[in-house]
Amino acid sequence: MTTLLIALAGGAGALTRFVTDGAIARRNRLRMPVGTVVINVTGSFLLGLLTGLFALSSADSSGAAVKAIIGTGFCGGYTTFSTASVESMRLWLAEGRGTGIGYAATTLVLGVAAAAAGIGVGHLLG
To answer: How is its activity regulated (predicted)?
Structure first.
């Protein structure tokens, strides 16, 4: 049953990514793929929050299932490292090396900061 729920959550995450990216792309006036950054940063925060909430809890089967469904399923379907990598290379080729590296570095730094913030909030709430 958990495997089915992980798969369904993964589909929900991918659908959420598609809708979110589309909404951001319609409003984005920059040549940068802002949607992917927003998706990866919010996904990193959510995964950090989940980690912070469950870090101090007991490892019972229901907690493990929730972590797998939300963390692996939803966050795995929602976030997209591969798209960020392709977009970094596309920017490198179209706009120059500095732009591609800057985009990749920004995505990495904001994602790690969001995960750390999520862990902190999760510890406060947990």
So the answer is: Na(+) is not transported, but it plays an essential structural role and its presence is essential for fluoride channel function.
